[in-house]
């Protein structure tokens, strides 16, 4: 299985897991020592990165999808007893997703440059300096 396939599976698994925990009664929500805003941010950061790696030709569509997921999940919380959606929570998720996509794109670009047969690592191996 390729890294792209694994990233796709993990990204969708995390989206569905977050949707379940977001819409389930509050007592089913996993709790960590981190503040809730950091949890939201980190979860969507990871999802954004996974979508970026899994769907490299569809980064804009991934960004739009994840922004929509963040906002829809916040809106659906109004329909769930005991839960409350908030615009700031949705914005934290959205920023995490966008930053995750940007970081994923940067990591992919850096990896391609490092692995280029005529790039930096090849020149280091050959004893040449980067101009």
UniProtKB/TrEMBL annotation:
This protein's UniProt keywords: Membrane, Transmembrane, Transmembrane helix
UniProt keyword Transmembrane helix, yes or no: yes
Record-annotated VanZ-like domain positions: 33-103
Listed transmembrane segments: 38-55, 62-79, 91-110
Name of the protein described by the UniProt record: Putative membrane protein AbrB (Regulator of aidB expression)
Protein origin, superkingdom: Bacteria
Species the sequence originates in: Microvirga flocculans
InterPro entries registered for this protein in UniProt: UCP033367_VanZ, VanZ-like
A Pfam family: VanZ
